[in-house]
TrEMBL record:
PANTHER family: REGULATOR OF RPOS, TRANSCRIPTIONAL REGULATORY PROTEIN CREB. Its main location: cytoplasm. It comes from Massilia eburnea. The gene is creB. Residues 130-230 form the OmpR/PhoB-type domain. InterPro entries: CheY-like_superfamily, OmpR/PhoB-type_DNA-bd, Sig_transdc_resp-reg_C-effctor, Sig_transdc_resp-reg_receiver, WalR-like, WH-like_DNA-bd_sf. This is Two-component system response regulator CreB. Residues 5-118 form the Response regulatory domain. Residues 130-230 bind DNA. Keywords: Cytoplasm, DNA-binding, Phosphoprotein, Transcription, Transcription regulation, Two-component regulatory system. It holds the Pfam family Trans_reg_C. The modification 4-aspartylphosphate is found at D54. The keyword DNA-binding applies. One of its GO terms (cellular component) is cytosol.
Length: 232
């Protein structure tokens, strides 16, 4: 894998060119394809550090590309999606995308998100246990590394999964409404819907149970919101 190669999967040439230009200025090596099948072949041929993937491709859906990509690659994925495609965004995050950017967008903002995701994905394990900003019996928050450990295992989280779980860990026992969570976690995505919070909670629970199948530290309070069990 080339740690500077970014695969751009976008059928609109003008958008792809603006992304490639912004990435190139920051030292990345952009590689552009226009079709989903081309993207899968390119990812196998030369595994990228990250994939920028448009949801609405001419041949197959970007969602299907992501599903198939996850069968052989763990490269982070950022979806490009139309502002109205809320359902696509929810499904995309559930199937393994790390982030999404709605059109129209700033190429500079997109590159900034690329850097954050790559830094988090490639952060080396610490030589010794770092002081935790907050910790409990099963969770350890390492804010300086943008990492959360559960039962001693580092969780592989997307950007919003990390921010959501971080918020819950920092407020154990507090019931936080969906509106409060959206304000804290999705402050840069004002068009986010309640269902996005629910989708991320579902994804977090699955990742926690993959480590401990009896774990259920995130509590649902019907009509109110979510909380993390005190002492978790």
């Amino acid at each position: 894998m080339n740690d500077k190669t970014i695969l751009i999967v976008e059928d609109e040439q003008a958008i792809a060119d603006s992304i490639a230009f912004a990435l190139g200025k920051e030292g990345f090596v952009p590689r552009h394809v226009t079709l989903g099948e081309q993207a899968l072949a390119a990812a196998r041929d030369q595994p990228p550090a990250l994939v920028i993937l448009d949801v609405g491709l001419p041949d197959i859906s970007g969602l299907d590309v992501c599903r198939r990509l996850r069968q052989f690659s763990e490269a982070p994925v950022i979806f490009l999606t139309a502002r109205s495609d809320e359902i696509d965004r929810i499904v995309g995050l559930e199937i393994g995308a790390d982030d999404y950017v709605t059109k129209p967008f700033s190429p500079r903002e997109l590159v900034a998100r690329v850097r954050v995701i790559l830094r988090r994905a490639g952060a080396p394990a610490p030589l010794a246990a770092a002081p935790a900003a907050a910790s409990g019996k099963t969770f350890e928050l390492r804010a300086a590394e943008a990492r959360i450990l559960f039962a001693g295992h580092a969780l592989d989280l997307t950007r919003y999964e990390y921010l959501l779980l971080k918020t819950l860990v920092e407020h154990p026992g507090h019931v936080l409404s969906r509106a409060q969570l959206m304000d804290r976690v999705w402050c840069d995505a004002p068009d986010t819907l309640d269902r996005t919070v629910d989708a991320h909670i579902k994804s977090l629970r699955a990742k926690l149970r993959a480590i401990d199948d009896s774990a259920d530290p995130i509590q649902t309070h019907r009509g109110m919101g979510y909380s993390l069990q005190p002492g978790a």
